[in-house]
Amino acid sequence: MDNLKIKMKEKIGYASGDLASNLIYQTISIYLLFFYTNVFGLSAAQAGVMFLVVRFIDAINDPIIGTLVDKTNTRFGRFRPYLLYGAAPFAVLAFLCFTTPNFSETGKLIYAYVTYVGLSITYTCINVPYGALTSAITDDNQEVVSLTSVRMFFANLGGVIVSYFVPVLSGYFSKSFGLSGGWQITMGILGIAGAILLLFCFSSTKERVKSVNQDHKIKFSDLFEQFKTNRPLVVLSIFFVLIFGINSINSSIGIYYVTYNVGRPDLVQWYTVLGSLPAFICIPLIPKINKKIGKKALLNISLAITVIGTLSLLIIPTDMVGLILISRVITAIGSLTAGAFMWALIPETIEYGEYVTGKRLSGLIYAIIGFFFKCGMALGGAVPGIILGNFGYVANQAQSSHALTGILITATIVPAILMVLALIDINFYNLDDKKYKEIAANLKERAELNIEGKNL
Fold first, then answer.
1. SS3 74
2. What is the DSSP track for 337-383?
3. Which UniProt keywords apply (predicted)?
4. Among 124, 118, 99, which residue's Cα sits nearest to residue 41?
5. Residue 95 and residue 187 in contact, taking contact as beta carbons nearer than 8 Å
6. How many CA atoms lie less than 13 Å away from 51 in the CB half-sphere?
7. What torsion, rounded to 10 degrees, do the Cα atoms 22, 162, 190, 104 define?
8. Which of 274, 344, 379, 399 is 20 to 30 A from 239, comparing alpha carbons?
């Protein structure tokens, strides 16, 4: 594409898709466990198990959708049609997930499974092609980093909106419509906004990059070939599980930590918003930092900062609210930087996969990544739910010292262990900038030869 510069208007249009997804899925990540245990009426253990079951379903569903996306060919392109047709169902299912029907205990559990599974499948149908759209907009590495940075800026804007306004709106509407009605109306507003943003993303973007050979047949078995030959993809997949696991656990346990350990439920929205707010400083700097110190150093430093911020809660007294909020900011600076930059590595794995197999499997690779990051997000519901259940957590009452210990462990020790594993994992990523440029040049040469061959 001769280093085509993508206009900021298109970058913002593309980024609006992640803002849409985060308005809904950040709410799921941060508040769904709390909603299920404190509003809907499930036990912490029931909710935790459900998060794991939904991810098992995703293990089957995601690669199928990824394969379907790679086979798609319409007048709107390969990826954009899913944004157009998925917007309305995504909004409706999000609304239903935060609806409390007047069912029996068993009926409620079944309802929760059906709506959450439905939302997860719909999310995959949108997020896999949305993510793959990056590699179709541009194949220039610096433009990919820039595009991803704008995307992550908007994604974290969604996080800030969710962190602050969801508690405010649900509390406001609860005064007139009851606790469950307050959550339902709040999610209805976010769902409508998300659908509109997805339609804007569809209309603002353009697919430019085509596969070297679009005649190859996409098969489900390509999934296993990628895991066998594409080492960067394997390393990045594990990294996604760990990073999303860390962020999701920190988000979902935060509301419990502030409410019960700190004893300040009035600070929940501020604690959660501080988990996203540093993004507006960190993310715009990522392209420059990456250019100066390289991807591995950037990720290693970011994760080390996250470890320091997380473990500091072990020694900060719970009555020192100022230090607790500073700790939250430090943790967020590290985790947001690592979490934003890792998305820029996915197009590299697509190019590498095409280099070694001859197939450009954008949809399938994003489905693989999507499955792993949803597994990480599931940890945010499953791990806290299971630990809290085993430590004797009981909703809507003062907690025992044993339960408070369980909350503290989940907020500190568990994510710290995952961060150490992420540090180890990312240092096995063997695709540096020099190697990537060689691969990109090789693919460009193949494309030119392929065009010449068809013209003969």
1. strand
2. HHHHHGGGGHHHHHHHHHHHHS---HHHHHHHHHHHHHHHHHHHHHH
3. Cell membrane, Membrane, Symport, Transmembrane, Transmembrane helix, Transport
4. 99
5. yes
6. 30
7. 100
8. 274
Could you give the maximum distance between any two Cα atoms of the chain, in Å?
78
Residues 6 or more apart from 91 whose CB is under 8 A from it?
24, 191, 192, 194, 195
Identify the pLDDT of residue 428: 93
Check residue 204 and give its pLDDT. Answer: 94
Place of tokens 């994510």: 415
pLDDT of residue 211: 59
Q: Tokens 């409706």, residue? A: 92
Rounded CA gap, 141 and 433, in Å?
A: 9
Distance CA 234, CA 351 (A): 14
CB 355 within 8 A of CB 439: yes
pTM over 0.85: no
Q: Smallest Cα–Cα separation from 120: which of 144, 142, 89, 77?
A: 89
Place of tokens 């769904």: 32
Q: Which CATH architecture has domain 10-205+218-450?
A: Up-down Bundle (1.20)
Q: Which residues of 59-95 are buried (b: 16+ CB within 10 A; e: fewer)?
A: eebbbebbbbbbebeeeebbbbbbbeebbebbbbbbb
- Please report the DSSP string for 36-52 in residue order: IIIII---HHHHHHHHH
Res 232: pLDDT: 92
Name the β-bridge partners of 74.
77
